[in-house]
## 1
Amino acid sequence: MRKSSILIVIVAILILGTAVYFSLAQKQPNRQSSAPKIAVSIFPLGDIARQIAGEEVEIVTILPRGASPHTYSPSPSDLVKMQGSKTLLIIGQGLDDWAANLASDLPGSQVISMDKDIELLQPPEGILIGEEEEGEEGADPHYWLSAKNGKQIARNISEALVQVAPDKADIFQANLSQFENKMDALDAEIKGLFASKANKKIVTHHDAWQYFTRDYGLDWIGSVVPSPGKNLTPQQLATLQKLIVDNGITTIFIEPQLDPQLSSTLAEDLKLKLVTLDPAGSAEDTKTYDDLLKLNAERIAATLQ
Ligand SMILES: [Zn+2]
């Protein structure tokens, strides 16, 4: 090889190396190490917060995916996760008190419930109508299962983000507007899935779906486990069986976070299908809050005639 050829090769290698260096550098997230951090209790809040915050605020979600917020006991490692965050966003209404209790161990941290300006519903009575529910406190906490409420949650999250990073308010506002448009479209899309269904009656494993059924015109007949850890009495189970038969129910919706045993037995006895819903977002296919709403809507719609 001639000297000039060697020179050309060396220059080419230098140019290529520089190009690769800069393209890799650009792929690094531009989150600065000084980005403020906030903690949230469960995945739906964490993902909405991620969409509004972009790279400007670090979001840490406490509940591991696959765990139920109703039955979770935090570990010391959850406290470590929250280190460096002075703000914790929760659902409230008793669902994620475990997270609020953790925050009380961190000096100077504030806990903000995301239910501001959301029309909260009382816990559903369903087949327990007329019976006193013991130990029920607060409203039905599953308000994130509605695209309309998702928009309001995003506004509440946005306010909290402005508190921790006031100089990024414009970015949060732009992301919020985009998110609100997306939720409007998703809301219409989900309504469309159910519009032509003749039988809109459903039976679920636990009482998570009241906001969803209200917004999308479904008729919630009852649930097998009124609230996690609480079983129906034999009389209530008999009532539920009768309702299932009388209302032409074909499917019981179970959930990955909760033991499906009672639903399985019921499905076997009454020859019903079991279909999995995912209210908290633990499946591989719910990468975003949007996925979570859409996936559940599609799974319910697929069982209705
Ligand atoms: Zn629940």
Note: The mean pLDDT is 87.
## 2
Amino acid sequence: MWEPQIVDYSKVRTVDIDSLLSGGIPAIVVKNFYKKDLCRKIVTRIENCKKNYFLNGHSMHIGTFLMAYATQKELYFEDVKKYEYALNSIFSKIKNPALKIHEFINSVMPHFDISQAREFHSKYSPFIVRIHEKGKSIPIHKDNVKYEGIEYEISKIDHQLSCVLHLQESEYGGNLVIYNKQWNKENEVFRNIDFGYSSKLISSVASCEIPNITSGDLVIINPNYYHKVTKITGKNPRITLGMFLGIFEGAQKIVTWA
Ligand SMILES: O=C(O)CCC(=O)C(=O)O
């Protein structure tokens, strides 16, 4: 069986990052990573924030997301600066969950230094808040900055992980499904015109649907494995805070970005 490692934050001492990188497990789920009452407070503040739209309104974001700027590096760094204040204001007087994720990764990978990614004097986006309302889903895709972000310095990382903190769950739907198949360049013929890949790619592949995720849970995956989020069918939007981790093995360094 291909199953996630599920641990409670209060008990977690180690997590199996190596198995995640090699595909031995599909995900690491850290339950109760962030307090539910703080998630609620953040969600209330998010409701009053200016949102961006991606893929013709298919997805609603707060913050800057590198993949929307794959060939517009200058604009990406300009927009990161523009949204810095709005993003920070969501966490005013609240422990910034992005920092908490940094501290957590530092505690389970103590030989690595972790910091927000920078290129010369510019900071990469620290995280992205994604809001998916009823009827929305995220199609089958992978995230691989080594391939898609070739103009950026972080494309030189050795490995990429994705961390998603759940701030609000929908009552129904919105489940993450991970397929036991890594993307490779030959798969590009199956790419959809707008976003994602044809389901033909994963039709005979084992998969894992992550069960019972609630607000405050942190989910870590290797995003080069195909994954999707099923349609949200409840009335509450699914709201998450996501960031990528880039691991430089030689320099024993981890950088984060969105
Ligand atoms: O929201 C999620 O659960 C997954 C988001 C995603 O596609 C990713 O982290 O690459």
Note: Residues 42 and 91 are 7 Å apart (CA to CA).
## 3
Amino acid sequence: MDPKTFEELREFIYKKSGIFFEKSKEYLLTNRLRKRLKELNLSSFEEYLRYLKSPKGTQELGPLFDAITINETYFFRHIRQIEAFRDVMVPELLKKKRSINVWSAACSTGEEPYTLVIALMEKYGQNIPARILASDISNEVLEKAKEGIYGEYSVKELSPDMKRKYFDSMGLGKYKIKDFVKRKVVFKNINLLDPALARKVGKMDVIFCRNVLIYFDNNARQKVIETFYNDILNPGGYLVLGATESISRLNTKFKLCHFKMAIAYQKPE
Ligand SMILES: C[S@@+](CC[C@H](N)C(=O)[O-])C[C@H]1O[C@@H](n2cnc3c(N)ncnc32)[C@H](O)[C@@H]1O
């Protein structure tokens, strides 16, 4: 890809999704989009960019997001955060209301929201005191999440007992999430940079936004965090980021909370 096309393409992607490709990640972008060019019968990235910017280009945004996003995830990723959610945040929030709203804001193939359901079912039984919304920018991962079929990698942190309880084994290392878990999650396609984000999501008590802001630059991060704080989180609500992420460099009124080997950010009452 010539340098000018790379610059324009990354600017286009950044404006639409917040995802920012450093110059050193140009090879990644090229590799991921090459297949798409072939499918569209286009012979250069310049042509692809022109297509994206044309009136027909809006229909290409979905496949573009499918191609460029990194969807790594697994059940019970960073279990200390899940324990802090189940044992501290949820019981505290339930002192004020009978049911809470939880949002998995970049849910990928569904392991994260289903983990939250399973964690709550372990404590409260099948009738969990929470509604779970899960969203992502990529339709491809959302379809997989709704299907709910997983390989060994996704369930690597689960004991055989937990697998039996919450999955139907399909043989050949495939596991299907049971319907009573699946039914608890509503999946939607939501872009974290959508100006109508707050209206699409509504009010939340806990937001899991793990391992997605790492692909954004500070401007996009700040924008998303501000919307969470000002428009989506209820007072007393929590924001959980990836275990290695921090928003300490951003300008926010969130209060940092420490749990057993995990942190989260709380909107003061
Ligand atoms: C690495 S996965 C994280 C999955 C899960 N939260 C976890 O921590 O295991 C990052 C996800 O963020 C999604 N994503 C990237 N940009 C997004 C945006 N602007 N809005 C919503 N989701 C986005 C990607 O499609 C991808 O599925």
Note: The chain has a mean pLDDT of 96.
## 4
Amino acid sequence: MNSGLAGQRVLVTASSTGIGYGAAEAFLKEGARVVINSSNQGKLDAARAKLATLGEVHSVLGNLAVKADIEKIVGETVRALGGIDTLVYVTGSPKPGRFLEFSYEDWRAAADLLVVSPAYLTKLVADQMIRDGVKGRMVILSSYVIREPSLGIALSSVCRVSMLSLVRTLARDLGPKGIRVNGLLPGYIKTGRIDQLAQDASKRRGIKPEDYITEIERDVPAGRIGTTEELGRAIVFLGSDLSSYVSGVSFPVDGALSRSI
Ligand SMILES: NC(=O)c1ccc[n+]([C@@H]2O[C@H](COP(=O)([O-])OP(=O)(O)OC[C@H]3O[C@@H](n4cnc5c(N)ncnc54)[C@H](OP(=O)(O)O)[C@@H]3O)[C@@H](O)[C@H]2O)c1
């Protein structure tokens, strides 16, 4: 199947490593023109150098939790590509931990990163698409914990729930303009985040990090952790016209980890 993405203008946020990087790689392989972003110049430069072997890639430094940086990310993307056809919104991770460990400041920071940032960035991208008359697509990455809270990552479990409503609200509001909005809920995907959670479990429970990995693999009916390439294919589906009549949905890519209906 032809994705029709050749020459399309794609912004992937939080993409120096992990899920965002895998998404950028997948779009470049389809011939898209891509802007990547992250908050660390060294990591961003390294990612851009690797991805440049696949096609046209630009980078914008910016912290997704900071208003001026969100404006800069969208503004510089439009300057580099001339507009945006597909937005893939990925963000960083709040720190792991259980509910009672967190302060007011922790909740504030998590809300900035997981609630305000996706709402404000998608608003700016929607404004741009509407101004340009682009029938664009947005793919908003959150997590399977949106449906099934995980006690060890309480900040993420609580704050990310708003992304489900963001997808539905935007899809219904922007549908008449020809803009489609969908969400993906990754289960366990092999990235630095999994290593961080394994280290955290090791400290808390006195187990080896590799024992944590074995535990989560046992929990997934598919029997293994997913790859960024597997998730990347789902992102390309939703971020292209392969999914032309799909909008307003959020679905898991989790090897049947989720139990909820
Ligand atoms: N891996 C999983 O199993 C899994 C499952 C469900 C959900 N998730 C979520 O998916 C998202 C991506 O995680 P990942 O697994 O790909 O982890 P990762 O490999 O650690 O990647 C995180 C990316 O986010 C960037 N980033 C972090 N904070 C940022 C900020 N404030 N502004 C801009 N960029 C920022 C990082 O780059 P810099 O450090 O260069 O800024 C990096 O490129 C996270 O929200 C994570 O919680 C992951």
Note: Residues 26 and 48 are 14 Å apart (CA to CA).
